[in-house]
Amino acid sequence: MQPLYLCADIGGTRIKTALLTADGQLAGPIFHQDARAALAREALLDHIAACLLAPVQAAPGKRPCGVRLAMPGPCDYDAGICKIEGLGKYAALYNVDLCAALGRRLAPALGSAAAGLRLQNDVAAFALGELRFGCAQGCARGLFVCIGTGCGSAFTLGSALAPEGTPGMPPGGYLYPLPLRGKRVDDWVSRRGLQTLSAQTLGEALDGLALAQRAGDGDAGAQAVWRDFGTLLAEALTPALDAYRPQLCCLGGQVTASAPLFLAPLADACRARGIALACTQDTSLRAMQGTLPA
């Protein structure tokens, strides 16, 4: 029997958890729960641990041999220490040793498996999941971008993440802090960016779901917001496309469900450069798969 891993994609809005086999197959459903990322430290740790245990409690006969978390940064991933601050999420976990704090909470239910808890950057895990199990299999050079509460990015070279200093890759593989129209990429290519654009055009700050519903109902203003968002996305990624010359540009995150409303400018930019463009259907599954031992 394949060994099982308890895997999680910890986002700013939702926490997704599931049991996966070592070869990336789901051994049960994916559980979706509110992140409650603004809670105080102890309550937040208790909540994350409860989210993690949901797949195990739903399948008492299945015992994981380890725990793998895809976690937004910044973190010291090797040490398992959260370094998030000033991002409006998980601020209470700053400088917390997540491996130790969550391991203690999970140990009564998981035993020695709780000591095998490991962290991976969420977008890096998404990229590795696509390389091993998804659309990027066999891709020599890839650019992966997740659009959610912020704009996460990862660059791959061969079957691994591109090492620091790889020509054409920004420091750390991070696109989010780069300048774009007087702000940062993160301020435009994100949920915040959609809210800013909708406030400018419609007079109210709307998220992607509300904008997609309005656009689908024929609201010209909402459709214009999506077109502006697509233009900003293309402007944000084009320098990386030119500098890194990936074979594939792959987008993830909930906003990709609305890709037909905004993707045209980036599709044109990729087509002009001979770069394949893909949108992931289940970013969380790919991120969880990417945390598994290679």
How would you portray this structure in words?
This is ROK family protein. Belongs to the ROK (NagC/XylR) family. It holds the Pfam family ROK. It comes from Candidatus Gemmiger excrementipullorum. The longest helix is centred in the C-terminal third of the chain and has 25 residues, at 220-244. The strands form 4 sheets. This protein has a 5-stranded mixed β-sheet with strand order 3-2-1-4-7, sandwiched between helices. Strands 10-9-8-13-14 form a 5-stranded mixed β-sheet, with helices on both faces. A two-stranded antiparallel sheet has the order 5-6. The chain is built from 10 helices and 14 strands. The chain starts with a strand and ends with a helix. With 294 residues, it is α/β, with parallel strands linked by helices.
Structural class call reads alpha/beta
What is the CA-based Rg, rounded? 19 Å
Q: What are the segments in which pLDDT stays under 50 over at least 5 consecutive residues?
A: none
Helix percent band? 25-40%
Q: Biggest sheet, strands in spatial order?
A: 3-2-1-4-7
Oligomer: single chain
Query: What can be said about the biggest beta sheet?
Result: 5 strands, mixed
Number of helices: 10
Family: Belongs to the ROK (NagC/XylR) family.
Protein name: ROK family protein
Organism: Candidatus Gemmiger excrementipullorum
Pfam families: ROK
